[in-house]
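EI: anyone free to look at a 111-residue chain?
SC: sure, send it
EI:
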Amino acid sequence: EVQLEESGGDLVQPGGSLRLSCVAPGFTFRFRNMEWVRQAPGKGLEWISSIYTNSNKVYADSVKGRFTISRDDVKNILYLQMASLKPEDTAVYFCTDGDRRGPGTQVTVSS
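SC: here you go
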C-alpha cells in the first residue's frame, strides 16, 4: 500500500515562511494529479492547491500569491512553499491524490 508522508511543519511567526514536503516511496507524483489540503482546529478539510500531470497549478484564493506548489520529478518530492504566513494558516497540512493522504504535518503561525 502506498504511504504518503508530509514533513516540514513548524511553529513560525506571522509573515514567516515554510516549505512542506511530501514523499511516497513507490508512488510517482508526475503521473498523478496531486493536491495539498489542510485542516484547521475544529474545521473541515480545505483544499488549497493542486498540481496536475501537465504541471498546471491552481490555488485557493486564500493562499494565492503566497503559496507555491511544485514537484521535483527527479527526486519525486511534492512541495508546498508557503510565504507571508498568517495565523489563519495554522492547520495540519496533507498531501493527497484524492484517494489517500499522509498523516499530515502541523503548521502553527503565532507570535
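EI: The CA atoms of residues 38 and 93 lie 4 Å apart.
SC: 👍
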